[in-house]
Amino acid sequence: MDIILEGKKLNKSFKTGEKKTQVLCDVDFFLKEGEVLGIVGESGSGKSTLLRVASGLEKPDSGELLYKGRDYTGSSPRQTGEFLQILFQDAESSFDPRMTMERSIMEAGRGKKDKEELLKLVKMAGLDEELLKRKPGKLSGGQCQRMAIVRAFYSGAEILLCDEMTSALDVSTQAQVMQIMQRLKKEGKLSAVFVSHDIALVSEICDRIMVMKDGRCVEEGETPEVIGSPKDDHTKELIESARKQSIG
Ligand SMILES: Nc1ncnc2c1ncn2[C@@H]1O[C@H](COP(=O)(O)OP(=O)(O)O)[C@@H](O)[C@H]1O
Ligand SMILES: [Mg+2]
Predict the structure, then answer these.
(1) Alpha carbon nearest to ligand 1 atom 12, residue
(2) What CATH class is the domain 3-83+158-247?
């Protein structure tokens, strides 16, 4: 499988007043075509910042970003939007409140007007096409998240960067969204980075897992390897605490 997205020695720091915090330290990552890469790590470890840097929402202080081997470091979100889309926890706020779903999604297609494809995607997402006439405020959180997936695919972007995309949803809605992700994956349509604090979800959908701690990648490997025999102490702790949560 070819590498579709890659980050090399990414560094990012934030300055608040006099204090400078290094949030990403020499982070390397790669995503192969058709693969789902999980990123786990405790809160504040730099997961969201890594996705924001990879999508052009933040500029790295140093390091390189590559899409299919082509350098895109410094590109704007508008430019990266041609090949990647970010899905956030709060899908509703990623839609313009004044626009109907249909219009928002059509706009993401940059002038493409393919109603047939849109309806196909809506159906695939298990949504009623009537919902396309509504504005985001008139959809549930789960419906908005599924519309965001539809929008991402309609845009033609090949890569999804998912940041805690199911964290705001109740358990059964979360399962519906994961089902769509699984279906897309089975069809070979999904190249994605899946960030979540939920190790159980990550191990369900991801082929490979990267563990972050304090802005560094501390462990990386195939999912069964990382979950079954974690090498890093921090990874062991994360898995252990997830186990305790699922029992208690
Ligand atoms: N825009 C910002 N300005 C200042 N600090 C930030 C900013 N974004 C993130 N941080 C800091 O970077 C660290 C990592 O944050 P984040 O990437 O959101 O971690 P995670 O997603 O793993 O919880 C945190 O300490 C956070 O406070
Ligand atoms: Mg985060």
Answers:
(1) 23
(2) alpha beta
Alpha carbons 121 and 146: distance in angstroms, whole number: 10
C-alpha closest to that of 163 among 245, 53, 81: 53
Residue where the block lists tokens 């299919």:
68
Residue with the smallest CA separation from ligand 1 atom 9 is 49
17-63 residue pLDDT tens: 999 999 999 999 999 999 999 999 989 999 999 999 999 999 999 99
The secondary structure of the chain in percent helix, strand, coil, rounded to multiples of 5, reads 40, 25, 30
Domain locations in the chain as residue ranges:
3-83+158-247, 98-156
Closest to 84 in 3D by CA, of 180, 161, 154: 161
Half-sphere exposure of 13 toward its Cβ, with a 13 Å CA cutoff? 12
* Ligand 1 pocket member 16 (CB < 6 A): yes
DSSP 190: -
Q: What is the pLDDT of residues 163-206, one digit of tens each?
A: 999 988 888 888 988 998 998 899 888 999 999 988 889 999 99
Q: Is 150 in the pocket of ligand 1 (CB under 6 A)?
A: no
46 in contact with ligand 1, CB cutoff 6 A: yes
DSSP structure string for 72-83: -TT--HHHHTTT
Alpha-carbon gap, residue 207 to 17, rounded angstroms: 41
Facing residues of 7 across strands? Answer: 29, 65
Rounded Cα distance between 174 and 154, Å, is 22
How many Å apart are CA 36 and CA 161, to the nearest integer? 10
